[in-house]
Design brief:
Elements (H helix, E strand, L loop, with lengths): L11 H4 L11 E6 L12 H6 L13 E6 L9 H24 L4 H14 L5 E4 L2 E4 L1 H16 L4 H10 L15 H8 L4 H13 L5 H13 L2 H9 L9 H8 L1
Length: 253
């Protein structure tokens, strides 16, 4: 009988401050190498996400399953080279700020300059405070951090595992996942049919003793189809021969 997992999709709105209580919850994180917003930081975001499960008796509380696909790249800029590139951009911004503050731009020209900076948004190192321009070096730090996360950490399974190790986490062996074909996916998503419940019900009834999980499973089936108990009392194991709810109810009556 297929077991359907209870999946809860939690966005960043939750993992930054919402507590989750469960005896069996385990955290899955899925990162897509082609979507930057899914490449979350190992040192800041991961501890936040893992810490949302608050039930101390949960044996999976401190476990994470991180599924990701590294982006196929023939080349990526090494971190040291990126630092040099950012340093040159900062130096150019400092020079430009000095020129802007010392120049005697007219009102129209200054407005054009300000409009250009606004269009650049978060990508510009230059900000305006009052009537003067300044260099915002926090933008440089952010760019370096984003480059480290998206280009260095997520470039391979080995690099991602190393980032977890530096955080002090224990890493288990990684696994490679293959994409299931369309038929397999459709079979998984198909709703469980009554005949599947009936077969499982009869199988459980035949067993001389049941585990706690099997007892819960049996209760779940009889809660869903309460007439099965009566049907089994009257028909025994011949109950499994029938296919429809209507047919069984008619025999019981």
């Amino acid at each position: 009988m297929r077991v359907v997992a209870d999946l809860r999709f939690v966005t960043c709105k939750a993992f930054e401050g919402v507590d989750y209580y469960s005896e069996t919850a385990i955290c899955f994180i899925v990162s897509d190498g082609y979507n930057k917003h899914t490449l979350i930081s190992i040192d800041m975001d991961i501890p936040q996400i893992a810490g949302r499960i608050r039930t101390k008796s949960n044996p999976f509380r401190n476990k994470i399953v991180h599924i990701f696909n590294p982006k196929v790249m023939n080349y990526y800029l090494p971190f040291d080279e990126m630092k040099q590139k950012i340093a040159k951009e900062l130096a150019a911004a400092e020079e430009r700020v000095q020129v802007l503050n010392e120049s005697k731009l007219g009102e129209v020209a200054r407005k054009q300059q300000d409009d250009e900076l606004k269009k650049l948004g978060a990508n510009t190192y230059i900000i305006k405070k009052g009537d003067r321009y300044e260099v915002n070096d926090m933008v440089a730090q952010l760019k370096l951090y984003q480059h480290w996360t998206t280009r260095i950490v997520y470039r391979s399974a080995e690099a991602l595992q190393e980032a977890y190790k530096q955080l002090g986490m224990t890493i288990t062996k990684g696994y490679e996942w293959s994409i299931a074909d369309e038929k397999a996916v459709k079979d998984i998503l198909k709703p469980i049919q009554f005949r599947d419940y009936l077969k499982r019900f009869c199988d459980l009834k035949e067993k001389p003793s049941l585990t706690d999980n099997e007892q819960r499973e049996l209760r779940a089936i009889t809660d869903k189809y309460p007439f099965l108990e009566q049907g089994y009392k009257q028909l025994g194991q011949t109950l499994r021969r029938y296919r429809t709810i209507k047919e069984i109810k008619t025999l019981i009556e």
